[in-house]
Structure to design on (118 residues):
């Protein structure tokens, strides 16, 4: 059974930090590129960052560049999103996403809420 389970969300003050984690199971993790998306209330889901299968390449959206960092550990089947200098506009549900190389088969996690507020 495929599972992507996010954790690490919560309430944080502006300027603070959080580290999101996504635990993957039920598929060959190293065959998949991994991404973090987010969706704020009333807005479309947007790509935050992604990382290739063996961490050769990463991409971060302009809105988070220099503040967020995506990483993965293939030995632990984990992907992370380190979020620093958080802003109120970062408030959203953050989703983990896996997409298989080649045929594009994909999976979504259930999401974790991040709220940035004083």
């Amino acid at each position: 059974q495929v599972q992507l389970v996010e954790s690490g969300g919560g309430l944080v003050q502006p300027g603070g930090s959080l580290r999101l984690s996504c635990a993957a199971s039920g598929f060959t993790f190293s065959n998949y590129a991994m991404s973090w998306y987010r969706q704020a209330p009333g807005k479309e889901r947007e790509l935050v960052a992604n990382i290739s299968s063996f961490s050769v390449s990463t991409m971060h959206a302009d809105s988070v560049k220099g503040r967020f960092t995506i990483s993965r550990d293939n030995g632990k089947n984990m992907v992370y999103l380190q979020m620093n200098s958080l802003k109120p506009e970062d408030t959203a549900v953050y989703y983990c996403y896996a997409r298989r190389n080649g045929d594009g088969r994909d999976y979504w996690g259930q999401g974790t809420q991040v709220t940035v507020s004083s």
User: Anything to note?
Assistant: The chain has a mean pLDDT of 97. DSSP finds no helices and eleven strands in the chain.
